[in-house]
Amino acid sequence: MERVTAMAASELYTKRARVWIPDAEEVWKSAELTKDYKDGDTALQLILEDVTSIEHKLDPKTKNLPHLRNPDILVGENDLTALSYLHEPAVLHNLKVRFMDSKLIYTYCGIVLVAINPYETLPIYGTDIISAYSGQNMGDMDPHIFAVAEEAYKQMARDERNQSIIVSGESGAGKTVSAKYAMRYFATVSGSASETNVEEKVLASNPIMEAIGNAKTTRNDNSSRFGKYIEIGFDNRYRIIGAHMRTYLLEKSRVVFQADEERNYHIFYQLCASADLPEFKILRLSSANDFLYTRQGRSPVIDGVDDTKELCITRKAFTLLGINDSYQMGLFQVLAAILHLGNVDIKERDSDSCIIPPNNRHLTAFCELVGVTYQDMSQWLCHRKLKTATETYVKTLSRLQATNSRDALSKHIYAKLFNWIVEHVNKALITNIKQHSFIGVLDIYGFETFEINSFEQFCINYANEKLQQQFNMHVFKLEQEEYMKEQIPWTLIDFYDNQPCINLIEAKMGILDLLDEECKMPKGSDDSWAQKLYNTHLKTCNLFEKPRMSNRAFIIQHFADKVEYQCDGFLEKNKDTVNEEQINVLKASKFDLLVELFHDEEKAISPTGQVPGTGGRTRLSIKPDKSRDKSSKEHKKTVGCQFRNSLQMLMETLNATTPHYVRCIKPNDFKMAFSFDPKRAVQQLRACGVLETIRISAAGFPSRWTYQEFFSRYRVLMVQKDVLPDKKLTCKNVLEKLVQDQDKYQFGKTKIFFRAGQVAYLEKLRADKLRVACIRIQKTIRCWLARKKYLRQRSAAITIQRFTRGYQARCLAKFMRRTQAATMIQKYQRMCVERKRYRKKQAAALALQKILRAYQARQKYQTLLRESKSVIIQRHVRGWLARCWYKRCLVSIVYLQCCIRRMRARRELKKLKIEARSVEHFKKLNRGMENKIMQLQRKIDEQHKDNRLMSDKLNSLETSYTTESERMRAELTRLRGAEEDAKNKGNQVSSLQEELERLRKELSTTQQEKKNIEDWTQAYKDKMEKMVSELKEQNGLLKTEKNDLNRLIQEQSQQMNEKMVRAIAQETQQLETDLNEERSRYQNLLTEHLRLEEKYDDLKEEMRGSKPGHRRRDSTHSSNESEYTYNSEYTDLEEGSRAVEDVTRGIDTSLTLKLQKRLTELEQEKQSLRNELENKDEQFQRARARDNVEFKKARGAELEYESLKRQELESENKKLKHDLAAMRKSLLGDAATGAGAPGSPAYKVLLDQLNSSCEELEVRKEEVLILRSQLVSQKEAMHHKDEKETMTEPSVYADDVSKLKDTDEIKQAYVGLKDTNRSPRFMRQPLDVGDLLSRLRSAAPDFHKLNEDGELWLVNQGLKETVRLLEHQLQTQRRTHDSEVETLRGELQNVKEENNRQQQLLAQNLQLPPEARIEASLQHEITRLTNENLELLAEDPTASQEARVIILRRMVDLMEQLEKQDRTIRKLKKQLKVYSKRIGEMGAGQTEGQTSPGQMVDEPIHPVNIPRREKDFQGMLEYKKEDELKLVKNLILELKPRGVAVNLIPGLPAYILFMCLRHADYVNDDQKVRTLLTSTINSIKKILKKRGDDVETVSFWLANTCRFLHCLKQYSGDEAFMKHNTSRQNEHCLSNFDLAEYRQVISDLAIQIYQQLIKCMENILWPMIVSGMLEHETIQGVSGVKPTGLRKRTSSIADEGTYTLDSIIRQLNAFHSTMCQHGTDPELIKQVVKQQFYIIGAVTLNNLLLRKDMCSWSKGMQIRYNVSQLEEWLRDKGLMVCGAKETLEPLIQAAQLLQVKKKTDEDAEAICSMCQGLTTAQIVKVLNLYTPVNEFEERVSVAFIRTIQTRLRDRCESPQLLMDTKMIYPVTFPFSPSSLALETIQIPSSLNLAFLTRV
């Protein structure tokens, strides 16, 4: 713990200072002072973080104050030495914060990398992370195992010194994984020196060693139970060539015993899990629970591990390392035999002997598997042989002894098997290539202390003591070197030296020496050995102690802690014996592999093992040195002696290398992910030496600043007068003022060194100064804000008052107006109410009166009516009563009369009856009868007389009666009518009364109904109103719902549209992505092909004997060579083969054979590719020939069809004429009959036939017009086509048809009309003349109406006109053809004459001297131009005037050229004279006979190239075949882009090559075309391979290759590429060859050049990006420099030579200007810029994600400013739409993420929506790395990060953390036609291409 002076204490231990106090649970707890500390105080007043107040008592003796806590800005630093206060609580807290909060498992502690096991798979070990760390300085990136590996690799290459990486830690701390990742890093970055994939073999050794040497323990599921040191060998180019492994202390006891929750070695469980495999049936295995050696731990399965798959991986690794299947099965047999041996049941016979039952199943299986006899093995498992000086005898073993002997044999077999596998792995990793250097990776156990510590822990801690001593010396040495380098006073640092502890163990009479001595004693025991230890060391060594309560233990004070060792078992474990007879039985085995395991055994066996009576963990040492001969004495060495020797060898190896330390920490004992146990961590930190490193650093000057960094950080503590131009002097002056004690710091050459705590003190001063400044700023700002607020409030109050008063006034006026209006309204309203009430009362009174009067009237009427009706009723009733009385009286009277008459008649009858009974009566009766008769006679007479009278009277009466009767009858009728009327009236009255009653009833009913209806109406009305209101509400709801539905429909429609748009966009994007992926895949395959070619070239170079340089190479390096090679390269190869013979003598034979084999394979591959190409060519030729035959057949058929069609037309024409004549005759013959009347059948038929004839005539006319148009177009096209045969087949027949002559053109034109003639409009049936004539004769048509418009005459005239037109056209074409032939013959004759004349003139000129030759040429040219002028003048005066002007201009140009040539001649003559004089002076002159002066003058002068007229050039260049190499050499190989090419037309080499190619095509020379293209491609590749790192060269040839590709497309003849051509350019199209395949080859070449250009630019930009985009402060003063530790980062302050953002922009400008100068296509420039910006963004973001010091608010603002500058550059160059800005989007979002608020859920939502371009891993990584630069910034809470992770959980994205910096966007070459005419291109003389002739 650091000591502070009284002054420092009073200054540092003030109120609110934070300290660390000890705690039983958390080891250290943070607290804050609530009161200033003063001298003499015995206690400190503290408050804990949970707001608990405590009093901390100080030690009265030491008065040591508690440790001070570092400022918050230093918490979470990458390097523990960067902490100002270096002590245990600071280290522990820093590791905890990084591990728990930031999820960072790696931390530097000076030269040590502290690695905490996360117990979770992290995505930080991918190839992208390896690429990011490759080539970086160790301090430039966040701590990582890859950074340590890179530092070791870099120091090996730089210092030419071997390296070592020492990985140590407890079991379960992650040692094996760390070592594995270090080896993976070396294998990835270095590649392999041969084709044997040594790096894969090195990595393949890991699963093997894990299977046989790792096991599950309570602390680790994959714990290494042995130590190993792997030396990875490198050649002189620092590529892996092999490896070698040494092992230490294998834990053999695990083979026979496992504690609870532990397992045996993995390989046993892998075999048991795979027991069902057919090949494993012979092993007789079953479940792991069936074997004793695998079931003791009761945990046979590891969660998440499939032992079957692991065995497959192990077997593949065996195969890769050369261990074949037979050996593998042998190994598995031995392992299965061990399991069976463990299951052998030994029965107890008595207390001193035992027996194995016969036919024991497992022993039988063991014997069969290892090839020994059952009897021998069962004999020596239960017996042993004892030898004395005189005799040998066999002794029985007890059951316990036999069991221990069996287990010892199992352990011994496994140890032998382990050593055999290690030996064979080493053999597989050995190579014949000479090893130049190596990097060793030591994976060894850390310091161990358990409740019971035995021999194994003693050896382990002894090894750690040695390693700690080496570590301390190395740290001390580095500190001393640093101080000496900076030239500061060096003072010895008191550090713990553990040499006394080492001497206690290994010195003479030390613990190991006494142990070996005791082992040699015949009756040596653990007790006697313990007594010897007590007697020897107890009083002489302070590090050795004796426990109080034990005489069989001892205590050693190690560097980490005190450890108590139990002496039980030390001697037996050190002896490590096994039964010799058992070994002899195994040696006699028939199993070859087992014999091989024991072939070196001697009589005395000393493998490792456990003897009877021992328990617990036992580890095995031994791997003796293979370089030494193994003698019998070597075998008798004890385990301790052998371990000491191997440890000494290891220390010698480590001391001869530069060590790098990795300390692995186990955070908890429960394997919980990211759980930190402070107690366990502190134990391991003390044990692994991290705290010792801190203590050593704290004892000196741990904090180191450069002067520039100190000035930048603490500029705030200076005043203006303190700032001097010399930064060093300024820092000295300021420090002397700030820190009075001179011992607290030292000034070095480049750095300032501070004692521990001084940086914290300066930070406190800085924070106080900033706090005061902040308070002042806050005060001023708050004052300004308060005044602004007051002024705003005052203004607002006045405004509110004004508006309030105005509002109140308006309200008062409104109130008054409303009151007056209300009074008026009330008056009128009351008046209205009263009037309404009066009118209502009046109406009511009138209504009442009316109703009353009506009621009275109705009552009176009713009364009168009732009285009248009553009288009528009375009258009728009385009359009815009177009639009834009369009738009754009459009836009574008649009845009475009847009764009386009946009574008299009865009396008379009674008398008569009495008289009749007497005679008298009869006499009387007779007399009386006579009298009576007489009387009656008289009476009758009288009656007759009366009757006559009465008859007369009756007649008269009848007459009168008849008259009266008639009258009465009439009266009666009248009366009856009147009665009827009366009755009717009565009935009517009654009916009316009934009607009235009915109406009354109806009225009452109606009234009731009315009332009911009114009630119903009211109810219905209410109901309807309610219903209406409900309907209105429903209507409103429906309207709302309708609107909602409409809106929803619209939204859905819009969403559907958007969805469709998005789907289409996604589909388009997916298609584009697929296309880009396909392009990338193709381009990657192309790159891989080129890489293989480069390997082939490298092999050729090595075979030629070129010495490789010391350079680091990437495994993915690509080449530029292709399969197209120079013919001259074969001769070079033949010449080089002679040199190879001499060189290969010094090369290793195996390497030579491998190279030859590889060369043969490449040659075979090349030959196979050539054969395949030839087969493809043959197939293509056959297909083309077949297609040509088919085409000729088809064309012949077409021509035949056309001739038949023409004949058909002629026949139809004749037929029509014949029909017309027949109709005329018919008409003339039948004219008299009148059969042609309108409407007749004949008339209709004739009319129909006439219409069809007219339509047919129109069709023929259309055909004639189309024929004429096609004839004209074909004739014009014939002037621009030659009739030579092409080398490729036409794609469509029309292309060949266009080359036919006139007749063929007519035929082909008719082909185009076939479909037209087949349309429904023209598909009528042919005309039948016979049918027509029969119809005409059958009926009489009206011929006059039929021909009234003259249709027949028109038909005839149309046909005649057609025939005349065709004849005229034919004659015109004949005349034109004849005239053209004559013209061409004349021109040909003129050309021949001109040619002869030119040859004569040329022959004459050649005989003239050069000066006269030029003049003669000029004169001839003038003469020719004059003649042409005269000819033009004679032909066309206007054209001749223009031609004269042109000729004059050309003459002026010729004169200027002549003058220029004269000046050149004079200049060269002067130079020649000077040179001649010099040569003469030197005596090296030449005779004049050799070279004439004229020739010397003429030599550098080329003849004047007099251009011909423009119309004479066809844009072609002719060259001889022997000049092809010269053309390629001058135009490609020796052309300097920075020199001659700068002044050329952009793309001139491409134009020249294409013009040469055009001439080869013109002369139909396919060999010349092929060789020119092949030479061009190979030459470009050769120049790129030679100068491939020159951006200008690569850019130049990229532009020219693309231009050459565009020329091949533009002049290919394809219509798609001819759209933008001029007619003159279309004439220059290739005519004979189709170069589509070569276009693909050139496109591939362009892709290769583009990728090479990108790599060149990346190599230039890469060193600038991190410095310019991240480290350099473009905005000065924004970000502050934080204290750094031993791992010094690159300073962010711009020193001389560092890159800035301006450097990047200048470089981008240079790239852009170079590409523009070379004429690169704009679209291609956009793609290049997009790739450049992607690299800038990706590298910047990757470094940001791997650098904790860059993740701050100020750095985010810096990055955004830098990005804005890049966007401004894009805007200036017009490249904003090229997609480059979008590539920076992830970087922009990361910068925004650094600047936004990171507290609330709203902030989390904003971050999730903002950072769409970042993955979840990247967002969380940035938040975890976010580090405040100043105390005023706040860290991101863990809860906020969890919230972000929860919100981003559903994202579907790649888990990759870093962006792929090697990704190259697939390049495309959009067609860009050139407007430059080929015939106008001039070849500069500087290109030395005078052998080219323009055609």
State the helix count: 53
Give a short account of the largest sheet: 7 strands, mixed
Query: Which word captures the global form?
Result: extended
Strands across the major sheet, in which order?
6-7-21-8-17-11-12
Mean pLDDT: 77
Characterize the quaternary organization of these chains. Answer: single chain
Q: pLDDT under 50 segments (min length 5)?
A: 1-7, 602-635, 1106-1153, 1231-1238, 1275-1349, 1484-1511, 1686-1696
Strand content: 5-15%
Report the strand count: 26
The separation of the N and C termini measures 94 Å
Fraction of residues in helix:
55-70%
Structural class: alpha+beta
Radius of gyration: 64 Å
Q: TL;DR of this structure?
A:
With 1895 residues, the chain is an alpha+beta fold.
Notes on the structure:
The chain is of the alpha+beta class and 1895 residues long. Helices cover 62% and strands 7% of the residues. The chain is built from 53 helices and 26 strands. The strands form 8 sheets. It has a 7-stranded mixed β-sheet with strand order 6-7-21-8-17-11-12, sandwiched between helices. A 5-stranded antiparallel β-sheet has the order 4-3-2-1-5. A 3-stranded antiparallel β-sheet has the order 18-19-20. β11 (227-234) and β12 (240-248) form a beta hairpin. The longest helix is centred in the middle third of the chain and has 186 residues, at 919-1104. The protein is extended. It starts with 5 loop residues before the first helix and ends with a strand. 31% of the residues are buried. Mean pLDDT is 77; it is low at 1-7, 602-635, 1106-1153, 1231-1238, 1275-1349, 1484-1511 and 1686-1696.
